[in-house]
Write a structure and sequence with these properties.
By secondary structure, the chain is an alpha/beta fold. It contains twelve helices and six strands. α3 links the parallel β1 and β2. α5 runs parallel beside α11. InterPro entries: DUF3025.
């Protein structure tokens, strides 16, 4: 079996990591590992050490390793290469670092998404990464991979009411009237690495595609690592069962999450350019 090639100039400093403020509330689930990786003398070697320690594998049971972008063959699609080799091409930038961080944090979901992507590529005959149309299922998987937030809600009337308000774009009701729900009945976990990259320099209009996961009472008493493992297994199983997230994502202006931005008063949520009303469906 071939081993992943070394990164060029592996000892170079990664100044882009200095832009990440690990104290941001949305980075709480990633904080310990993120700080460890950022502080490593060689962040790339640290990624692979963490992958080995966690026995992170793809859907073909191949060990996940983060390799130089040059290892991706010119005629091979990115997702197909990860599927067939377990190797994740990783450039020297924030976007790919955060992608690797999500692989280490939610390996089952990432492996499942890669399986779905690879299957769609094979079905469409585009393993070479050609310019043929991507298709709805592959587009949906890409949107989820890049921009998803995981909205975990207590499976009770309070949680169900919160989700109904969010899906109906009743922002004041969800974020002001039901604000306390985010203290005990709801948690937002970032997943999309492009979403996380945008939040390194946050601005009000950042909007995630949220997938709702109803959780039983015991979930909310778990430690953070146990919560993460439960979310990982549940959503991976959901993706395998449904095969797609088409029609199941709801917009979530993430800086509207209580505690994720300052001055979250009524005027903040009245900004219709961000907290948009739900479009009416034509008869």
């Amino acid at each position: 079996m071939s081993t992943p090639a070394s990164f060029p100039d592996a000892s170079s400093s990664a100044s882009f990591l200095e832009a990440i403020d690990w104290q941001r509330p949305w980075l709480a689930p990633f904080r310990a590992l993120g700080r460890q990786l950022s502080a490593a003398a060689d962040w790339r070697l640290a990624l692979n050490a963490a992958a080995m320690a966690g026995d992170i594998r793809n859907h073909q049971d191949l060990p996940i390793r983060f390799v130089a972008q040059a290892e991706l063959p010119a005629a091979t699609a990115y997702e197909a290469f990860i599927s067939s080799s377990g190797q994740v091409p990783t450039r020297d930038n924030l976007h790919d670092f955060l992608n690797a961080l999500v692989w280490l944090s939610f390996p089952a979901i990432k492996a499942c998404l890669n399986a779905l992507q690879a299957a769609e590529l094979a079905r469409a005959g585009t393993l070479s990464g050609s310019s043929k149309p991507r298709g709805a299922a592959r587009d949906a998987a890409t949107i989820f991979d890049e921009n998803a937030a995981l909205l975990v809600v207590r499976d009770n009337p309070s949680g169900q009411n919160l989700i109904a308000a969010l899906r109906n774009h009743q922002w004041q009701q969800a974020f002001i009237e039901q604000r306390r729900a985010f203290d005990c009945d709801a948690e937002v976990w970032l997943f999309g690495h492009a979403l996380m990259e945008k939040l390194v320099r946050p601005y009000k209009a950042i909007t995630a595609h949220a997938l709702v996961l109803f959780a039983p009472e015991p979930f909310f008493a778990l430690e953070q690592d146990a919560k993460r493992a439960w979310i990982d297994s549940q959503i991976a199983a959901d993706l395998m069962r449904h095969g797609s997230v088409i029609g199941r994502l709801t917009p979530l202006p993430v800086l509207g999450v209580p505690g994720w931005s300052a001055d979250q008063d009524a005027d903040f949520y009245a900004d219709a350019a961000v907290f948009r009303p739900k479009r009416s469906v034509a008869a």
